[in-house]
Amino acid sequence: MQVRVDSEYCKGCQLCIIVCPRHVIEEGKELSERGYAPPIVSHPEKCANWKRNDKRKAVCETCLLTCPDHALEWDERPGGQQGVDQE
Amino acid sequence: MEDFFDLYRKDRWPTIFCPGCGVGTVMNCFYRAFSELDIDQDRVVFVSGVGCSSRIPGYIRADSIHTTHGRALAVATGLSLSNPDLKVIVFTGDGDLGAIGGNHFIHSSRRNADMTVFCINNNIYGMTGGQASTTTPHRAFSTTTPYGNMEFPFDLAELAVTAGANYVARWTVRNVKELIGSMRKALVKNGFSFVEVASPCPTGFGRRNKMGDPKQMYEWLKIKSVRKEKSEFWNMDPVDLNISGQITIGEFVDRNRPSLGSMLKSMMNNE
Fold first, then answer.
1. What is the ipTM of this complex?
2. Contact yes or no for A65 and B214 at CB 8 A
3. Which of A69, B87, B94, B172 is most exposed by smallest CB count within 10 Å?
């Protein structure tokens, strides 16, 4: 699974970028509807939870715990399938 | 409690806090600690005074009392004595607890009243526009100290240890895992348990001290904090550390003195 940024809640403080020990998240450039620039998950395969698919067994989670606005959440599909639409 | 929004109110989201405020991090950590303990949400009361941090109970799906400035601990003492079955949790800030409610804090620690206090220390009065509080570091700038703060900051955790609290810990918002562990211990502890969280305030404190970016404030917190074990190894006095702009983090005390409620109960049973 990988983290997903909720652009509705994100306030663009970029704290998730500096607390992540594996540099999974990068600075975003596009503005959201509320006028903030949410970060983008650029290297999800570097995340420690990439091969797990149950959020109750997740390790690390520093970005989720740090995010002050609860804008990050787990996408529980296994690694590599997040971009694919399930038919 | 499976989901984050089983504890918090989704209809009030997103929060009013500034981007990069540490209060949201404390809310995340509190949810993790609270949901693991399986406490009945109907038997919990959240008490708060006035300030940014005291807005947390407004987001929680449980009973809460919003009291006058600095009087959160006085109200919480009355609540825990009148109904000992209730679990009383207080969210408060440094101006609320250390400055205006300072005496209530000393005497609640001394009496060992049954409550859990989470203090979010952002070094400034954030909500009223950035005035210097009792925990503003020496030489830091604020609205009321334009030439730098002449006074020395107040160490809330050391005060609680000296006054006789049962459990005292202090962490920064960077130490999320340790903070969750301390919150879990504080929630199950009888008597007065106190967890202080050093938190960034980029809008009120950071902008006047060349740290307007939340990332810079996080770096500052990392430089500013010293582990308790390290300070003991180097024989550093907490007052000397405070003067040099540093704080110790860690678990300061964990003891089992009888609480005010249990003493009262045993007295009533004897007569």
1. 0.90
2. no
3. B87
